[in-house]
Write a structure and sequence with these properties.
This protein has 596 residues and is an alpha+beta fold. It is 32% helix and 17% strand. It is globular.
């Protein structure tokens, strides 16, 4: 099957990646998370990772293999580990990660037969494709494309085309047919990395094979927005992570064809997901399912411990947000990514050596806890390293006239402007403090460029000072705040972000079932023998400054009431700061607090 005739061409991005150009470095908590992930994944023995593949191929198999999901082979996440290491090589500037990616690639290639048979299900093969593309694109291992082409030829003649989907006749009712085909599970994510492989130099046959795996019956539902006040005509009770991840395939189809249809799909998907499916953290998918627009999102808080498949879900959302940022240039598409940076992927306990991995977030009413997945090396151990490696790409973007700042985190960025090398350093204690300072480095004389700042939706009043003087940036296309001037070396830009305490209802069916957040940072109440927060309703009439006292150190809020002698009111602090196994509450019923 070939792509349909098109008069369009591959689009030039409106914003260009600086993270994957190796131009960004993160510091602070995000930098520490990257360093921890690099240590953990570089600490994996190559022989252990390849043990199962080598044994299956009848080759000498030193090492002892892995546990959990990788007890037979590391197929479930091997491609993602290869991808994450390749990405860390460039986004974090870790040469050891490039070398390790090459060792894994070379060792794995020896286990693949001349016919390209990877002896994997589609589930594992899709992840392998990503690892091969990234090993070539980000770690410079060009031989990965040849292996991709050889395995794609095998797959084109081998992988079943009998693809389980929601039955078209039952779309509106949200009824799905049983998934009877384990070997084609999540087939609708396969096109992404075949297309990316083609863009990286693979043949047109690889591109044509990608076109086989379009999920048109689902994507079509997002090409047009519903009329005002009407629900989306989208099937539900579907696997949430993979039904967000499928939009990365639509994004890749857009990058190959330039067809506006695919960009319309991405826009619609973002709108649908962020208005009907996500919690205050940006997480989604209780019991790993998409939900109808009928209050199910709020009701799930009453009994589901697996409130959000948070690591895989963050990775899928990062890819959707990045594609939309890149191809529309609109600042608002960083909003969801920011939620997940602070309260999704950025709030989980890291993957630990030996395979102990985060998987779900728990937002239950009454009491919740952070727990690792019960099995070693699950799928989230793959998306974890990919998502962490992607963090630098979310912070800055380059546009034709300069650089855009999407997130306010400790970091540095450099870029080339009119033949000169320029850089910014960003210093901030946000969210504990409310300011971020950007310092310009021109390497000499003045340089003219346009600095663009994202105004977050949670900001009560964003102000900007340049060299101490208050300025009024103009709002430009894409919703950015822009300052254009001749910048001198050492010029400082001080941004006051306007973060404040916010109350966030879970959905319109549960207006008093709320989470608390400071700016984008979701707060968790200590639930260790404490009373839940309660407020008079309607809570919108409550003076939050009187109802809560801000702590002197760090970011914390203490309810003004005293609770009872046995059950005092617990402190609220960032969800990211809650350790594993310590009880907390993210959501509370203000008009009917529950302890259990």
């Amino acid at each position: 099957m070939s792509l349909p005739p098109t008069s369009h061409h591959a689009p030039e991005p409106v914003l260009r990646s600086l993270g994957y150009a190796g131009r960004v470095r993160l510091h602070g908590p995000l930098g520490e998370r990257i360093a921890d992930a690099a240590e953990t994944y570089l600490g994996l023995s190559v022989d252990d990772v390849l043990h199962g593949f080598r044994r299956r191929a009848g080759l000498p198999a030193p090492g002892k293999g892995l546990t959990g999901w990788s007890r037979t082979t590391s197929e479930p996440t091997f491609g993602q580990w290869l991808s994450g290491l390749a990405r860390l090589a460039v986004t974090a500037g870790i040469p050891e990660a490039r070398e390790r990616a090459g060792e894994l690639l070379g060792g794995y290639a020896e286990t693949v037969g001349a016919d390209g048979d990877v002896q994997m299900s589609l589930y594992g093969y899709e992840k392998l494709l990503c690892g091969l593309v990234d090993a070539a694109c980000y770690a410079g291992h060009d031989e990965a494309i040849g292996l991709l082409e050889r395995t794609a030829e095998w797959a084109a003649h081998t992988i079943e085309r009998d693809r389980p989907t929601p039955h078209a006749a039952n779309f509106a009712g949200g009824v799905i047919t049983p998934d009877r085909h384990a070997r084609t599970i999540e087939w609708y994510t396969l096109a992404e990395n075949l297309y990316r492989g083609h863009l990286a130099g693979a043949s047109t046959a690889v591109r044509d094979f990608a076109a086989v795996w379009h999920y048109d019956s689902y994507w079509d539902r997002f090409a047009e927005h519903p009329a005002p006040g009407q629900a989306w005509d989208v099937p539900v009770w579907l696997h949430a992570y993979s039904h967000v991840n499928t939009f990365a395939s639509a994004a890749a189809a857009y990058e190959v064809t330039g067809e506006p249809y695919y960009l319309d799909v991405l826009r619609g998907a973002y709108e649908y997901l962020t208005t009907t499916q996500i919690y205050a953290t940006g997480g989604y998918g209780p019991s790993e399912l998409t939900l109808p627009e009928d209050g199910s999102l709020g009701r799930a808080l009453e009994w589901r411990t697996d409130t959000a498949e948070i690591v895989c879900g963050s990775w899928a959302a990062f890819k959707l947000c990045t594609a939309l940022l890149r191809h529309t240039g609109e600042a608002r598409y960083a909003d969801w990514a920011e939620q997940l940076v602070y309260s999704g992927l950025g709030a989980v306990t890291p993957v630990r050596p030996g395979g102990r991995s985060p998987y779900y977030h728990d937002y239950r009413l009454g009491i919740a806890t952070k727990l690792a997945h019960w099995d070693d090396w699950p799928c989230c151990s793959g998306t974890y390293v990919q998502g962490v490696a992607h963090l630098p790409d979310l912070v800055y973007q380059q546009h034709d006239g300069g650089v855009s700042v999407a997130l306010y985190v400790p970091s540095e960025v450099s870029w080339s402007q009119d033949g000169r090398e320029l850089s910014l350093s960003q210093r901030t204690d946000f969210p504990a403090a409310d300011t971020s300072t950007l310092t310009v480095r021109t390497g000499g004389g003045p340089a003219r460029f346009r600095l663009r700042l994202r105004r977050p939706p949670w900001s009560s009043r964003l102000t900007v000072r340049v060299k101490g003087e208050l300025v009024r940036p103009r709002v430009v296309e894409g919703g950015w705040l822009e300052i254009e001037r001749d910048w001198a070396d050492g010029d400082r830009v001080d941004v006051t972000l306007g973060g404040r305490l916010r109350v966030l209802p879970v959905d319109r069916w549960h207006p008093n079932r709320v989470a608390f957040a400071h700016g984008p940072v979701v707060l968790a109440q200590n639930a260790d023998w404490t009373m839940p927060v309660s407020l008079p309703t309607p809570w919108s009439m409550v003076d939050l400054d009187a109802a809560f006292t801000r702590t002197a150190d760090g970011l914390g809020y203490r309810p003004a009431g005293v609770g009872t002698a046995r059950l005092p009111l617990g402190l609220l602090r960032p969800l990211a700061e809650v350790p594993e196994r310590v009880p907390y509450r993210v959501y509370a019923d203000l008009d009917a607090p529950r302890i259990i």
